[in-house]
Write a structure and sequence with these properties.
The structure is a single chain. The chain is about 45% helix and about 20% strand. The protein folds into two domains: about 5-90, 2-Layer Sandwich (GMP Synthetase, Chain A, domain 3); about 95-160, 2-Layer Sandwich (Ribosomal Protein S8, Chain: A, domain 1). The radius of gyration is 18 Å and the shape is elongated. It contains five helices and six strands; from the N terminus they run H-E-E-H-H-E-H-E-H-E-E. The strands form two sheets. It has a three-stranded mixed β-sheet. It has a three-stranded antiparallel β-sheet with strand order 4-6-5. The chain is α+β, with helices and mostly antiparallel strands and about 160 residues long.
Length: about 160
C-alpha cells in the first residue's frame, strides 16, 4: 500500500473523477472499483448497451490509455505520498484485447514453427507486448523478444 492514502481511497478518488468525466460527456455508465491485489485497483466503466463507450477506448485503445493516465494523475495530485497501480478498463476492452492478441500470437507462432523464420510484429504498447510474450511463454518451438525503442518497440517471434 502506498504511504498516505489507502488503495480503497485511491479507488474512490479515481471513481469520483471518472463519474464526473462521464457526466460532463453526457455518457450514462457505471463505474465499478475492484482491488486486484494489495497494490492494484481497477476501475471498470460499463454501460448497457456499451456502444457509446467506444469514444473512451479510441483506436487500438489509445484513448483508454490516455484516460488511465489522466485518472492516475488526478489520484496522484490528491495523495501526499506514492500511489498504487491504477488501471481503467472500458466495456472489458482490455480483456478482449488480451484474448485477441493471444489468438494472433498463436497463429504467428505456428507460422514461425512451420517456416523456421522469425517474424517481427508491428509496434505495440507495453501492455500489448506483454500479452504476446505471456501468450507464447509456454509455447514449445518459439521464443519471443522485444526490440526497438518506444513508441516503435515491437515483438519478434523466433524459432526456439
Amino acid at each position: 500500500m502506498a504511504e498516505g492514502i489507502s488503495l480503497a481511497e485511491q479507488g474512490t478518488i479515481a471513481k469520483e473523477f471518472l463519474v464526473g468525466l462521464l457526466s460532463s460527456m453526457d455518457i450514462k455508465a457505471e463505474v465499478l472499483i475492484k482491488e486486484l491485489d494489495e497494490e492494484t485497483v481497477e476501475l471498470s466503466v460499463n454501460a448497457d448497451p456499451p456502444t457509446e463507450l467506444g469514444i473512451l477506448v479510441g483506436p487500438r485503445g489509445t484513448t483508454l490509455q490516455a484516460l488511465q493516465e489522466v485518472t492516475r494523475t488526478v489520484v496522484q495530485s490528491k495523495s501526499p505520498g506514492r500511489t498504487d497501480r491504477i488501471l481503467v478498463d472500458v466495456a472489458q476492452y482490455r480483456e478482449r484485447r488480451v484474448a485477441a492478441l493471444g489468438r494472433f500470437a498463436q497463429q504467428v507462432a505456428q507460422e514461425v514453427i512451420e517456416t523456421g523464420e522469425e517474424r517481427a510484429l508491428e509496434p505495440m504498447s507495453a501492455a500489448d507486448r506483454k500479452a504476446v510474450h505471456d501468450a507464447l511463454s509456454e509455447k514449445d518451438g518459439v521464443a519471443t523478444r522485444s526490440e526497438g525503442e518506444d513508441p516503435r518497440r515491437f515483438v519478434v517471434v523466433s524459432p526456439a
